[in-house]
Amino acid sequence: MQESEHQDSQEQRDLTPPSSEGAARAIEEEHPADIALRLEELEFEDQLRIIRSMAPGDAADSVAEMERHERVELLERLDPRHAAALVSEMSPDDAADILEELKDEHALNILGRVPKEDAAEIRNLMTYDPDTAGGVMNTEIVILDERLTADQAIQVIRTEIKDKEVPYYAYLVDAQERLTGVLSMRDLLLAPAGEMLMDMAKNQVLVSVTFDVDREEVAHLISKYSFLGIPVVDYEDRLLGVVTYDDVIDIIHEEATEDMQKMVGAGSDETVDSPWTYSIRKRLPWLFVNMLNSAVAAYVVHLFEGSIAEMAILAVLMPMVANQAGNTGQQALAVMIRQMAVDKLDRKKCWYAVFREIKIGLVNGIFVSLIALAAVFLLTGKGLLACVMATALLLDMLVGSLAGAGIPLILKKLGRDPAQASSIFLTTLTDSLGFFFFLGLAQVFLIAR
Amino acid sequence: MQESEHQDSQEQRDLTPPSSEGAARAIEEEHPADIALRLEELEFEDQLRIIRSMAPGDAADSVAEMERHERVELLERLDPRHAAALVSEMSPDDAADILEELKDEHALNILGRVPKEDAAEIRNLMTYDPDTAGGVMNTEIVILDERLTADQAIQVIRTEIKDKEVPYYAYLVDAQERLTGVLSMRDLLLAPAGEMLMDMAKNQVLVSVTFDVDREEVAHLISKYSFLGIPVVDYEDRLLGVVTYDDVIDIIHEEATEDMQKMVGAGSDETVDSPWTYSIRKRLPWLFVNMLNSAVAAYVVHLFEGSIAEMAILAVLMPMVANQAGNTGQQALAVMIRQMAVDKLDRKKCWYAVFREIKIGLVNGIFVSLIALAAVFLLTGKGLLACVMATALLLDMLVGSLAGAGIPLILKKLGRDPAQASSIFLTTLTDSLGFFFFLGLAQVFLIAR
């Protein structure tokens, strides 16, 4: 693998002008995903030359595979006529995704030049929320009348299948276009010639989703049942499209990225390839939120300025309490957010999970506090200070556990993403309360006496 | 969706004894993944009753779908004869995965009672590293001699396919069992009867991996090319098995969980369903590491105890510096770890990514520092203190950006997981240096004069 990667980058270098003509011919035999990677490395003029030299369908597939930011830039610089030619060669769901990324006027300009029938389908797909089944489904599917026989069906497939993106299943519909069954190509291959499709699908337990189901839920169903795809229907059970395993792989990647990045207040779709100014726009607001939050902790410390002036060692130990509890909380938070990403928690399991984290926090807290007790006593010789430190640590680690498990649940209850800025909220709590426990106990037991 | 979930839990309650006999009959029509969920809710005796009432193949599929901890517990409590009966009904790759989870003596005990041929295959699969292609591949695949014709192939498939787990592709091999091509069921369905398979596959660009390729790399290939599966070969190109899209969906989920949980020092495979003592064993060592790390920061503060005694407000502001820089660093860290999960970074791109984060940190740092400057000046009226705060903040946010981008790269260079405890290492740096910058500057400009 390593070696072929090197080879790739070698060829990439060869690809830059003046030799781009020759390379353009070679590129056509590659997978669109690879061509997309190469296109991303090139300047606009060279991208244009490569795209012009390719068959229109291949060019469209390659552009559809490019990174979001890269393809937006490319399409916005292309003249609308050329862009429309590319877009009309794409599968309608890719076309809809891409046009949604462009500025409205630009998208409309391009859509106006796409052949009418394609444009109508793309426009239709653009009406679905991108975070739902409708927003990610493919519409180029094999649909068969359930009253056909197996051999008639194979005949239909032989003539129709070539331009369909999802060639592993055929979907059966009745006269009202309602979904009634699913057959794999294998089923058709093995069926006796005269058998009716509706009879072949008779005892199926058919799983489908309506167009407005959250895409994360769709991903969950497909990964739970190892489906290749799941049909999407409207409220009257009419077949609209199919979400396939490869869409789901993308969704899972994207959701994992969203969770991890949102947790700390980075943009949910940032990558190393996003413009850096985009990252600033996404992160800066959360840094301000974090600043306001840490002002709360600072205020708590401010309340005890007198104690600190009297006993500066408090300022030495106080960050340790907050830090340790913050880490404890983040461990709980990480497990909780991942759990909510791969599994649905019912009410009972939520309580179970919170209680579980508190138990873990308690035991870990006791271990850590005892060590802190010994260490502080050995280093300072002050028994009472050591006790205050250990008690504050234990209390704050419990706060961390409770907050780490609870914050994502509360965010979800409020209708927000369970990950959103959860780490920021968590440290606000562990910092403020950590300082409060430690400095408060110190004031009562060390300073006041 | 929501409704059917409720229904499920309804039925679950009905399932508990004394009515479990009736429910056991109903359960057989469900998907193994659903049965697994139900089994997990039951006590051992009831699990046993359900399993005994099911067809052996269905029971095996359902047990294979159970959570790791749950199925380990079940198999360790089953008598070995019964466990062996279940295991020999599983697909060999599932059987190997499950036996690897058991204690050695237990696994051997069960393997000794599995029919010889199955046992040999399972034992063979157990020799592969679970993190590699060999460790996740399926071996029940359709293999065809490349010298067959399309109609002969269909005949072979009709008689052989029924017990194969991967029925969408057939793999072509030559007389030496070397992989020479891949055909989909669709290809076979559409082929002229007399055409030779080797001719059908003639112009294919065949992508395969050797058994020792990292599973994350396999997932990367499958998701990049939207493959349904990727064949696994030995060094002589002989076909060993296939990794399929549903394995990849699991891998992507697991890797995302690993990254997020390792980042903060939680166990890479912890879930809400892991025994809580397991979580303690996984997390406690990292809490100790965190404690040692935060002792470094405490030591830095200790160096400036004199200054703090003189000017307790330093203790109020100092956590804000560290916290803000920590958050900045975690934003960079999250984007970097996700990038490394979905994409391979070459040397050039690594430098680009680090430089990009520094730019973002610089701009965000300037904004945040200016606000801090104004806020501290307005609240305290001390211009010099405000300047010290702002300068320390800017410097520490730059440290955070550099560390957030750099730590995963350094960990990888050292051959470690890029995520492992990265958040802990990060806050060590931002805390220690944040305190150092702030208290150091304060000592020079505020105390010493």
UniProtKB/TrEMBL annotation, chains A, B:
GO terms for cellular component: plasma membrane. PROSITE patterns: CBS. This is Magnesium transporter MgtE. The keyword Heme does not apply. Signal peptide: none annotated. InterPro entries: CBS_dom, CBS_dom_sf, Mg_transptr_MgtE_intracell_dom, MgtE_N_sf, MgtE_transporter, SLC41_membr_dom, SLC41_membr_dom_sf. Acts as a magnesium transporter. It is a multi-pass membrane protein. It is found in: Cell membrane; Membrane. Residues 1-27 are annotated as: Disordered. CDD domains: CBS_pair_Mg_transporter. Residues 137-198, 200-258 form the CBS domain. Belongs to the SLC41A transporter family. Homodimer. Keywords: CBS domain, Cell membrane, Magnesium, Membrane, Metal-binding, Transmembrane, Transmembrane helix, Transport. GO terms for molecular function: magnesium ion transmembrane transporter activity; metal ion binding. The keyword Magnesium applies. Residues 1-14 have a biased composition (Basic and acidic residues). The chain crosses the membrane at residues 358-377, 383-411, 423-448.
